[in-house]
């Protein structure tokens, strides 16, 4: 009798990893599966059917030990704008994982979570919707470069070793109150742009005191379109991809059906919550990431649109044991 499938998850304590493992364990389809989680800075709480192993992903011995008996790999671990870590985590770490998988007698599928940084998201003009065949175009910095290298390395393992895998390319992943803090003029702003730097400290303090919302415009004065995905929708796509034959060696964009238009976003917040708006013009460009391929191959549908993303972020109330903490810059 074959042993139960064993799913190895890197980045298991991060935003996607924690949500994924919780949903995975409660999904009847995976009732007989086990999870092995690679932990580095943080630990997972003790859970039935979950084994935590500790080590650095760039450590070959640690990775080889962790892959023993593994049937599936979900690679979530990443590094942002930290040059000392980016190549170790995103290149060396992925290389040891893929080497271990191709040599394994139990391995069945590799799932990589990529990012739209590989095609430059809103740093470059995209006159048509971005599909998976568009050439890589990383923006300046080590993070975007690492996303290109990850996708390229996985594709080469398909060619060289016929590895069974897929890449789900996600834009900015939202959960809890992330969107609210993205739209903050304060120093607590989440991600970029840093509105407080764009408007200056005095104006930023005034806007923050009023609870004002930045409205990002391009150089022509049009609302910038930017792609997001809620963590729940990304997790649903991951679970749909597991053991899905049509996902074999495929790259798929996983995002909302339409990008968020900052003008529409501001209008929605002004209308529903009475928040004042502040236009901010900058160098960024609109981008429309096309998710048709993931919908077609996985039978997956995102549940979050702009309105639901806003409502979820503004309704979320943090408990004292759930402080906001950013584990990596960028």
Description:
A 7-stranded parallel sheet has the order 3-2-1-4-5-6-11, with helices on both faces. The protein is an alpha/beta fold. Helix 1 (15-25) crosses helix 8 and helix 3 packs parallel to helix 4 (142-161). The chain is globular. The chain contains 11 helices and 13 strands. The chain has a domain at 6-170 and 229-255 and 288-302: Rossmann fold (3-Layer(aba) Sandwich), CATH 3.40.50.720. The chain has helices at residues 15-25, 60-66, 83-102, 142-161, 178-182, 195-199, 201-210, 231-241, 262-273, 292-298, 306-315; strands at 6-10, 34-39, 50-54, 72-75, 109-115, 165-170, 172-174, 213-217, 225-226, 228-230, 250-253, 260-261, 277-281.
């Amino acid at each position: 009798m074959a042993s139960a499938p064993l799913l190895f998850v890197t980045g298991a304590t991060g935003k996607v990893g924690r949500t994924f493992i919780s949903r995975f364990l409660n999904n009847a389809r995976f009732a007989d599966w086990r999870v092995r989680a690679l932990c580095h800075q943080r630990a997972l709480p003790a859970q039935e059917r979950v084994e935590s192993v500790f080590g650095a992903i760039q450590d070959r011995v640690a990775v080889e030990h962790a892959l023993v008996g593994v049937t599936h790999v979900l690679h979530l671990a990443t590094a942002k704008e930290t040059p000392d870590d980016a190549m170790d985590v995103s290149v060396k770490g992925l290389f040891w994982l893929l080497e271990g998988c191709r040599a394994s007698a139990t391995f069945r599928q590799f799932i990589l979570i990529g990012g739209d940084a590989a095609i430059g998201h809103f740093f470059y003009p995209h006159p048509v919707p971005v599909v998976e065949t568009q050439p890589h175009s990383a923006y300046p910095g080590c993070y975007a470069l690492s996303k290109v290298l990850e996708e390229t390395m996985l594709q080469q393992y398909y060619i060289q070793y016929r590895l069974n895998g897929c890449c789900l390319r996600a834009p900015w992943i939202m959960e809890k109150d992330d969107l609210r803090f993205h739209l903050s003029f304060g120093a607590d702003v989440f991600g970029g742009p840093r509105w407080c730097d764009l408007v200056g400290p005095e104006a930023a303090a005034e806007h923050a005191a009023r609870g004002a919302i930045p409205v990002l415009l391009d150089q022509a004065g049009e609302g910038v379109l930017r792609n997001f995905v809620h963590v729940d929708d990304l997790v649903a796509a991951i679970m749909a991809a597991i053991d899905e034959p049509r996902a074999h060696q495929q790259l798929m964009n996983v995002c909302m059906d339409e990008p968020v238009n900052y003008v529409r976003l501001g209008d929605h917040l002004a209308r529903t919550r009475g928040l004042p708006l502040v236009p901010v013009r900058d160098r960024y460009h609109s981008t429309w990431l096309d998710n048709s391929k993931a919908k077609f191959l996985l039978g997956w549908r995102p549940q979050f649109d702009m309105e639901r993303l806003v409502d979820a972020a503004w309704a979320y109330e943090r408990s004292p044991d759930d402080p906001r903490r950013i584990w990596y810059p960028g």
